[in-house]
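As the next step, I wrote out a protein sequence along with its fold in token form, included below for the reader:
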Amino acid sequence: MPGSLEPLDLGIQIPYHFRCPISLELMRDPVTVCTGQTYDRASIEAWVATGNTTCPVTRAPLTDFTLIPNHTLRRLIQDWCVANRAFGIERIPTPKQPADPTLVRSLLNQVSSESAPSQSRLSALRRLRALARDSDKNRSLIGSHNVREILLPIVFSELNSDSSELNCESLALLVMFPLAEPECTSVASDPDKIRYLSRLLFHTSMDVRVNSAALIEIVVAGTRSSELRSQISCIDEIYEGIIDILKNPIAYPRALKIGIKALFALCLVKETREKAVTAGAPEILIDRLADFEKCDVERALATIELLCRIPAGCEAFAGHALTVPLLVKIILKVSDRATEYAAGALLSLCSESEQSQGEAVAAGVLTQLLLLVQSDCTVRAKKKAQLLLKLLRDSWPQQDSLGNSDDFACCDVVVDS
């Protein structure tokens, strides 16, 4: 390769020493290894992770895998980006350095020390939480040091009293890590711990409330025992607290994300879905449907379909003026899964209510269903659409009014299949 410059398609040249020798791309986080060579952090970490123990350039053994940030080169790259921004080059951000394993161990020891002052333990928890938020790598490092075993006893150390700041900070850090099944089972099988989490759903701090909902979702989803899941879902206050979290303004998106995850996990328990309906789940799900992100829309629609499988749920959804029009509108608009769940919910509603049938036809469901059965969506979505078309046959517009409509001809083919 040339010794100084390399041409780009943009018509601009990147200095050769700004490129990573492994990826040949502009370095974003240059680090130097023990041989004195500099690489982009992501590239050299991937090189080592695949089992390589030599320097890619010199082929000399890497006797020390410590990566030293090359701050001088990174600043030169940033200055070069700024100087060439007229060519569409964006300045690379200053990377946050990965957590030091020694620091992480020290902070965890401080957190677990019951003899340490509360303020000192709080400070250590907050530093660990900040590190965990910075990157997946930091979370992986913290998680490898038995962080769950340290935090669980602290979270539940004051079951019979008001939660302390130490409990709440431990909870905030704990929900950033997945619990193993035995840990989920241990929490789920202790009624006092579940009641404690249900009380936290009504805490004065929204962060505490959302973190409590997050841990409830983790425990319910991670517990295989249907009996234990039912025990958790039987607590009225849990549904009430989670529904209340979902009522928060869109300015707090994490409340929506965690709230719908928790509600969906609880509604997977068939025996207690009526409690969700009683707590107001149908109304809040329809009212907030437009506020969810794509993956959360899918989860919300899956929850709606689950609740439509019980009479009380069907009645509640049918009683909301926006339910049917929204479900019809969503078909083919969000994703294949969202389409499948929306069609399933409409099928349940229209099977139970002639009013819902009329609303669906008025909202244009026939055209949506005809498009659906001809699309590349899931087999289950097509099956639901075909069943719904059959169900709505008596509600179709008069054939004479459609004349030689290709859509109507297609409809006959679909229904008779």
Remarks:
- The two ends are 64 Å apart (CA to CA).
- Strands lie at 5-7, 13-15, 30-32, 38-40, 68-69.
- Residues 302 and 341 are 5 Å apart (CA to CA).
- The first strand starts at residue 5 and ends at 7.
